[in-house]
Write a sequence for this structure.
């Protein structure tokens, strides 16, 4: 067995774990990251695509990469589509902020490259990861691809190991807050030009549609489906027919269609683990909370967590007593705002089995109120582009 000593052991090498390790290295704190998946698997998995303003700043200002500014696309608003008409919510006009379309996969690639460049210790493709002694001197144990056992001894352990976290179970006595939704999203990647300048979030009685984008020739779209839906049961023609029916409206707007090269059903739920800390174990990102995808808050919340976490760890290692106590309460304030925002966008835009005419008319009333009021649409703009840090 090999033994490594480090200040911070990080389980999970997705964007949260890698960004934390990057920020710590800049602060002179050493860390080791272990990740069960191979780097090539993460680099080829499609995830969400929208970055808040502060997430973009974090990538650029901390020297990860400025590729987001050259390869990403600034989006100055979104379209809310209902009653067959698109309504632009213009974030720039309302509050002077934008978001950037830059896929999570690219954020991961930039972070992994930054670690290569800066000599970070990131171990991909590890097996049988376990943690112990989280209230004393924490340890991570794992087996590498050759079958050799490894142990990492650290002062602080961070669980950034995603929604199926193994570290979360070590937060003794935590309360898991859950909400299940009676639907999921069917996500597709297709070869087509963008359908509009801005993303379209569409309400229809047949269910929600989101027309997002990737490049000039590749688009990402989602439509609401049953949580038990099997992606392989849908042909391209069936998918486009359903999307067409949901988008159809008096303004004659149509989605640009093309060959579909990926189909996946995405889970849909809200979850928060409180507290986010037990002794010397701190959780970050999806390990501590999951939001429904509507509004693309997941990655942005993970990056906001590690921004706070890196700051308190720097103060902790600088000798400040009690710095770690601040982490959970500060992170959770933003988490619950994002839970509300994602829930609100979801409930305003999705159809629920058994909804009455009253329910549908009420949703349309809410959408009219949001787009018809500067204060209503500014609320959406502030939440979508990301709140300033508390
Ligand atoms: C994307 C995903 C989202 O959940 C969202 O609200 C906007 C965009 C995307 O994958 O592009």
């Amino acid at each position: 067995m090999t033994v490594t000593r480090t200040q911070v052991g990080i389980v999970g090498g997705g964007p949260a774990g890698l960004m934390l390790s990057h920020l710590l290295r800049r602060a002179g704190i050493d860390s080791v990251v272990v990740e069960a998946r191979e780097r090539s698997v993460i680099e080829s998995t499609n995830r969400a695509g929208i970055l808040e303003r502060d997430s973009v700043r974090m990538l650029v200002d901390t020297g990860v990469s400025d590729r987001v500014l050259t390869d990403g696309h600034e989006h100055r608003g979104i379209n809310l589509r209902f009653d067959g008409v698109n309504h632009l919510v213009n974030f720039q006009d309302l509050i002077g902020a934008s978001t950037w379309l830059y896929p999570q996969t690219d954020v991961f690639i930039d972070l992994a490259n930054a670690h290569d460049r800066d000599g970070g210790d990131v171990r991909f493709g590890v097996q049988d990861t376990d943690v112990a002694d989280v209230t004393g001197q924490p340890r991570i144990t794992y087996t590498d691809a050759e079958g050799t056992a490894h142990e990492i001894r650290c002062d602080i352990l961070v669980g950034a190991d995603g929604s199926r976290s193994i570290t979360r179970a070590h937060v003794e006595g935590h309360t898991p807050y859950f909400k299940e939704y009676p639907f999921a999203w069917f996500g597709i990647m297709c070869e087509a030009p963008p359908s509009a300048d801005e993303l379209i979030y569409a309400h229809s009685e047949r269910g929600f549609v989101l027309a997002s984008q990737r490049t000039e020739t590749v688009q990402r779209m989602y439509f609401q489906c049953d949580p038990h839906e099997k992606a392989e049961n849908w042909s391209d023609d069936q998918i486009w027919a359903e999307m067409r029916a949901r988008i159809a409206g008096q303004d004659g707007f149509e989605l640009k269609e093309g060959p579909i090269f990926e189909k996946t059903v995405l889970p849909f739920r809200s979850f928060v683990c409180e507290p986010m800390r037990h002794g010397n174990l701190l959780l970050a990102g999806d390990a501590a909370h999951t939001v429904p995808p509507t509004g693309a808050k997941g990655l942005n919340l993970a990056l906001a967590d590690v921004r706070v976490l890196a700051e308190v760890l720097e103060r902790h290692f600088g000798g400040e007593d009690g710095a770690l106590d601040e982490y959970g309460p500060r992170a959770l304030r933003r988490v619950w705002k994002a839970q509300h925002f994602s829930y609100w966008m979801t409930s305003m835009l999705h159809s629920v089995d058994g909804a009455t005419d009253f329910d549908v008319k009420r949703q349309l009333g809410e959408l009219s109120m949001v787009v018809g009021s500067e204060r209503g649409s500014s609320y959406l703009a502030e939440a979508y582009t990301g709140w300033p840090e508390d």
